[in-house]
Specification:
Elements: E1 8-15, H1 20-29, E2 33-41, E3 64-68, H2 72-85, E4 89-90, H3 115-120, E5 125-130, E6 136-143, H4 149-152, H5 162-176, H6 192-214
Parallel strand pairs: 1-2, 1-3, 3-4
Antiparallel strand pairs: 5-6
Length: about 220
């Protein structure tokens, strides 16, 4: 079981400050996690990098690598390293030959080998409590976006009726989302920001349905 692991140690590899928001979200909302190193490479690299090993180390201190690299040469090199060393890699919003590459940080499914990070961060899962008047009294995050938007979007929707919360909550998430709105998924036709709103709408709708089915406030 993933939960038998006491601490999941995370290595972050970022280009410029691309991972700053995720580092902040993981630190604030995660538990049993430790970011043991942050490896930062320059953000003004040339279009072609012939020696990626000059920027990315060949060993990592963590049990899991989170990549916030934009440059394809560096990401391909990092993916090959992780594959050879059998270290799990998550590179949200990117494509590479190895690892998990969800469309956004809130699109990561549940996968074996990601430790406490995979249990807590990824496709959102919520629980809901209604007050005696049927209004939203509490939204509990079981699993959410590593940027922290899943948690930070809650306060403005407390006190709303569920149907109102279903409109307001994903909108608040989109306001907080730092994904590139011009990055469109060719299959769904949605941008990363639209996708973030959609998955949070789906998670809240599921939580509302479960609460109403249980018949408990």
């Amino acid at each position: 079981m993933e939960s038998t692991q006491q601490i999941t140690r995370i290595s972050v590899v970022q280009e410029g400050a691309a991972g700053a928001q995720k580092i902040s979200g993981i630190t604030e909302y995660g538990h049993s996690l430790e970011i043991v190193e942050v490896i930062t490479v320059p953000g003004n690299l040339p279009p072609l990098v012939d020696e990626p090993e000059a920027h990315v180390p060949d060993r990592f201190a963590g049990d899991l690598v989170l990549s916030f690299l934009r440059h394809p040469d560096l990401l391909d090199y990092l993916a090959a390293l992780c594959e050879r060393q059998r270290i799990p890699l998550v590179a949200s919003g990117r494509k590479c030959r190895y690892g998990h590459t969800p469309f956004t940080c809130c699109g990561l499914g549940r996968h074996q080998g990601l430790g406490h990070y995979g249990e807590q961060f990824g496709f959102p899962e919520l629980a809901l409590r209604l007050d005696p008047q049927g209004r939203t009294a509490e939204i509990i995050v079981i699993r959410g976006a590593s940027c922290g938007a899943t948690w930070e979007a809650i306060a403005p929707v407390i006190g709303l009726m569920p149907e109102e919360a279903l409109i307001a909550y994903p909108r608040e998430v989109q306001y907080l989302c730092h994904a590139d709105p011009s990055a469109f998924d060719p299959i769904s036709g949605k941008s990363a920001v639209h996708y973030a709103g959609h998955v949070h709408h789906a998670a809240l709708a599921k939580a509302i349905q479960a609460t109403k089915k249980a018949g408990t406030p």
